[in-house]
Amino acid sequence: MKNSLPQDAKLVFKGELFEVWQWKQKMYDGSIEIFERVKQVDNVDVIAVVNDKIILEVQEQPDRAEPFISLPGGRCEEKEEPLVTAKRELLEETGYSSDHWELLMEHQPFNKMIWTIYNFIARDCSYEKIPRLDRGEKITVKLVSFDEFIAASQEPTFRNKYLGTYLSRASFDEAFRKKLYKTIFG
Amino acid sequence: MKNSLPQDAKLVFKGELFEVWQWKQKMYDGSIEIFERVKQVDNVDVIAVVNDKIILEVQEQPDRAEPFISLPGGRCEEKEEPLVTAKRELLEETGYSSDHWELLMEHQPFNKMIWTIYNFIARDCSYEKIPRLDRGEKITVKLVSFDEFIAASQEPTFRNKYLGTYLSRASFDEAFRKKLYKTIFG
To answer: Which of A66, A105, B128, B136 is most buried (CB neighbours < 10 A)?
Structure first.
């Protein structure tokens, strides 16, 4: 059941990142209330494989006091297909590219927000060119082992929270861990 | 590291549920960009214990096609302490009350939203009075066993997603399951 807006919903605010939409909702007693949802462009995250390693980023952002760990990824531009975003962000942030892409999962973390995160796996990545960072990004690229990747995903500063909870099972369920390894490395 | 707004953030939109805040953020190259966050009042969820059972709700809402399963809970009113909200919502939605409250966890699910969910445990609940539902609520109260509670939390229609991922571990880690049982039932 994917979150969506009813047809008669109206845009009441458009900001830098977020839109706010409202509609008139009939309640169970027949009365009308204004219902409201927030919407933002979708996001992609990439589990990028280089030989037997996975790419992690240590990132600083200008409004955050502490650095955090994350996967390559970012926001879909207007009308941009998630896979196109994934390829673009991986190349811009890390300099790597891949010809072997697979969607691991899509996730809507928040009931009252129209927003999907797409998690892709990029296998057999090769280094293409020097990363091109936004003026709001300071990113250090690290190549880590599968074990280090699972451990990092359980750190409090790991940014991709939905993925951290998904991966937590790999810390104490050996069958899940083996299956996940195969899913990622092929 | 709790999400918060910088001191110079300004309210640019106030809707029915959401506020949008913006501030001028200095970037790494010295330029300025408008940063934006969404804010909403905090939420509480309650794991309410009645003898050896836990309270679950099967709920319909006027804008949702299908019923969903959830814990008792709701939104904090302006300036309302989370524990006060928890007691109020439990009584309104289920008719039960408790004198033995404990905070299990607090959770900020979303980096770009100023929003905290407080999860409380209410032990030794007793039936007080007939529930008083909002005109946007149709709620059926069920008392389920610990095993049924864990199973329900893994259903796709279980509403409290952050809790579902937290509880998933109980499905395949016996030590965690036993500890959780003790935490809930005391």
So the answer is: B136
